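HUMAN: Please help interpret these tokens:
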Amino acid sequence: MSQENFNSLIAFVAICREGSFTRAAAQLGVSQSALSHTIRALESRLGIRLLTRTTRSVSPTEAGERLLASVAPRLDEIEAEVAALSELRDKPAGNIRISAAGHAATNVVWPLLEKFLPNYPDIKVEVIINYGLIDIVAERFDAGVRLGDQVAKDMIAVRIAPDLRMAVVASPSYFSKYPVPKIPQDLAHHNCIGFRFATHGGLYAWEFEKENHAVNVRVEGQLTFNTSPQMVAAALAGLGIAYVPEDMVEQDVQAGRLVRVMTEWCPYFPGYHLYFASRRQLSPAFSVLLDALRLKST
């Protein structure tokens, strides 16, 4: 294959994945006009149209879809093989992209990266905060972080954190005005701070369990967020009851800024796992990062 054809295929795959000439050009470091010329030349050589262009989007034609399905995995394999050559260096090197929810990124991934990165100056890690259950392969991430029961069966999952427990909290000023809830049903009479999922837009039903009796409560209140830190801030401001991971509010509870209730009803969930595609060939950089993030037995 000529260098021209190879570069054209790289450009074609980038446009399909980005859905935009502008974003693909920025990713490849070329001008939009040069990228358009490259694709027109490719289509001319093949004698078939590969992309459908509108004023707002770009999408592959039927022929383009067929070419993308054939070429993209092979380009990924080439990229992985090139990255693997870094093992010949004194220290692993390369770029690693990780998708994680805010709580996982802040409370689990970052403390580990803080210790890891100074020892591997040639490894670059990009952490993208994402609350949706995205397809990490399609979105070009090397790995994602989710709770253990949320990892797809076709992925390899490595535990990086112990089991997670939730906490029901509110400020002392809030409980000075309203009675302390004792059971999940009592929450129906309280101003609860809701959480809305980014993936499907639904409201999270608070999950409780006691003596193998599970109860899900659809709470109501004045405030709803799609990230946990805002929920904690609202609880500290006395605006309602929040249901968040206990490690986010541990210090506030100890300092008396928040009051924890219904502890016996709060269940544990499988802890965070780093997951990645089972067919992925691990680069030396990813391997050492995986080992650093892996939860060590105590």
Notes: The longest strand covers residues 94-100. The mean pLDDT is 89. The two ends are 53 Å apart (CA to CA). The chain has nine helices and 15 strands.
